[in-house]
Structures are given as C-alpha cells and as structure tokens.
C-alpha cells in the first residue's frame, strides 16, 4: 500500500533544519542509497498556488519509487536560498524548477528525466484577455497580440534584475532590443490614457515580462497598473473582467487546470513564448539522472 504523500508549508527556520539534515559528508555523491535520508525524503518547492506544485504532487502519486517522499512548499525566494546554500556547500538538493529562470545562468543544474511524462513536453507561455478587451482597447489588444519573444530575452532580464530593480532591467532590455519592440507597436495608434489592468504572477519570470509590457504600453499612451496575484486568482479575475490582459499563463500543463475551469470566459490570444520547461531539478554534481532513480522511504 502506498504511503501518503503530502504537501507541507515550511518556514525559513524549517528550511534551515532541512539543510542541516542534509549534512556535507560525501554529499556530492548522491547516487548512494542514503540520498533520500540525507534529504529527509523531501523535494523543495515554491508557492502552494503554483502550477508546478500541483504537478509535483501528482508526480508523487505517479512514481511508486517516491513512496514516503514529500513536497515542502515555501516561496520561490525560499527555494532559491536553499539552492544557494546547497551549491555553496556542494550538498544534495532536489527542487522543483523551470526555465526560463536565472538560476540556470548562475549554476550548473539539470532536469531529472521524467519517464512517466508527468511534467509533459516543453510548454508555451500564453497571452490572455478578458472578454470585451479587444473592443474596449483595440490598440492595447493589438500590441499584446503582437507581443512575442524568446526564453533568452526573459532570462536575460531576470539575471540583470539580480543587481537592479526589474523596471531598470526591463528599460535596459527595451533600449537594447528596440527593433523587436517596434515590431509589437508598428502601425498601431497611440492610446488616449485609458487605464489598463495587466495581470502577472509573483515570480521573476513574470516580473520580467510585466515590467517590459508595462513600459511598452505606457510609452504607447496607456495608464498601466500591474496586478500581481497567484495563478488561480488571476484566471478568476480575467474570467470576471477584473483584469484586462496578461502574458503570464503557462500551458498546457502548468496552469492547464485553471484554463479548464475558467477558459469559457477568457480569450486565449495564443503563445508569446515557446520552449519553457518545468520539472525536478538537481545540481549537476549530483550522481542522479532520473526521477525514477530516487529511492522510496524505508
């Protein structure tokens, strides 16, 4: 009979205890039978409302070898703090991860193979709007419909924002990529100061895109407010017309459940980025390559 897998909220204090439990003795050799014990049979996650959190909960059920493992959620910042410490001490750590993210610029990391296919294929980031947005603000709709960029663009802003605020990093990116920005706005009339509610998530990837779009839309005559909320709240707000537009949703896996729930009342404008990946991530120095290699709790 399978042991129960649960999701637990953890504080920074318990995160510190987790790192202490990992220890440093021979920890880079993570292929031994004691890896799960060193990690307290824990995968370190991010916010409870994140799509990758729900997907990892499903992975705990799909993989028989993960009996007794748990997903501990905290925040993206909390997870990054644990990753920084683990890398500094060359200790083992298993986290939920995704690209684009600046951690892949900072450290040598790898996704574990997912033979059960729980995390799906590489995903797309979509632009979505409330019903009536196109008729109410056709110029803003056209800009958002034209918006498209690459993983490397977003990741570059995220990395730059480690040394400055996101608005400055986005402004520098816009200046350096003016030809791309012009392709989003070319031939579109200026707005007339209309107020626009741009939805986003509290993660660095979406802070990057919302900072860029806020600047581009503001420069084109719109009064932009960025509303940063968890995915479930954003989808509901779009469906209820409380947010005008967003460039944040990851599909089909990460936030697919929310689209199924609210999609009838939301306009999906299509992908603005392709090639995003979610899954289970470990430092490159760990001697493990697949989720299936993890051992069940004794």
UniProtKB/TrEMBL annotation:
Pfam families: OpuAC. Residues 1-20 form the signal peptide. It is found in: Cell membrane. PANTHER family: GLYCINE BETAINE/PROLINE BETAINE TRANSPORT SYSTEM PERMEASE PROTEIN PROW, GLYCINE BETAINE_PROLINE BETAINE TRANSPORT SYSTEM PERMEASE PROTEIN PROW. InterPro entries: ABC_Gly_betaine_transp_sub-bd (IPR007210). GO terms for cellular component: ATP-binding cassette (ABC) transporter complex. Residues 34-176, 195-295 form the ABC-type glycine betaine transport system substrate-binding domain. Gene3D superfamilies: Dipeptide-binding Protein, Domain 3, Glycine betaine-binding periplasmic protein, domain 2. It comes from Alkalibacterium gilvum. It comes from the Bacteria. Transmembrane segments: none annotated. The keyword Metal-binding does not apply. GO terms for molecular function: amine transmembrane transporter activity; carnitine transmembrane transporter activity. One of its GO terms (biological process) is glycine betaine transport. This is Glycine betaine/proline transport system substrate-binding protein. Keywords: Cell membrane, Membrane, Signal, Transport. The keyword Cell membrane applies.
């Amino acid at each position: 009979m399978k042991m129960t897998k649960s999701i637990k909220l953890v504080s920074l204090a318990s995160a510190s205890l987790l790192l202490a439990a990992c220890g440093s003795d021979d920890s880079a050799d993570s292929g031994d039978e004691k890896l799960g014990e060193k990690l307290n049979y824990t995968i370190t996650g991010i916010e409870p409302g994140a799509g990758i959190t729900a997907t990892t909960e499903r992975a705990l059920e799909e993989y028989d070898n993960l009996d007794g493992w748990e997903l501990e959620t905290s925040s993206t910042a909390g997870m990054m703090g644990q990753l920084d410490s683990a890398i500094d001490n060359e200790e083992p750590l298993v986290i939920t991860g995704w690209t684009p993210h600046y951690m892949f610029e900072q450290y040598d990391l790898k996704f574990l193979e997912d033979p059960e296919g729980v995390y799906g294929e590489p995903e797309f980031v979509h632009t979505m709007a409330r019903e009536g947005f196109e008729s109410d603000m056709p110029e803003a709709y056209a800009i958002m419909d034209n918006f498209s960029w690459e993983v490397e663009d977003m990741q570059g802003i995220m990395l730059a924002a480690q040394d400055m605020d996101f608005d400055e990093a986005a402004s520098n990116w816009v200046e350096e990529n003016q030809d791309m920005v012009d392709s989003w706005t070319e031939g579109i009339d200026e707005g007339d100061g209309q107020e626009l509610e741009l939805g986003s998530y509290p993660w660095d990837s979406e802070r990057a895109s919302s900072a860029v779009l806020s600047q581009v839309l503001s420069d084109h005559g719109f009064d932009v407010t960025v509303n940063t909320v968890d995915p479930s709240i954003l989808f509901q707000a779009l469906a209820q017309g409380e947010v005008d537009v967003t460039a944040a949703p990851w599909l089909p896996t990460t936030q697919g459940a929310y689209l199924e729930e609210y999609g009838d009342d939301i306009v999906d404008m299509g992908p603005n980025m392709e090639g995003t990946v979610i899954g289970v991530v470990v430092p490159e120095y760990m001697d493990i390559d697949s989720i299936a290699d993890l051992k069940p709790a004794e």
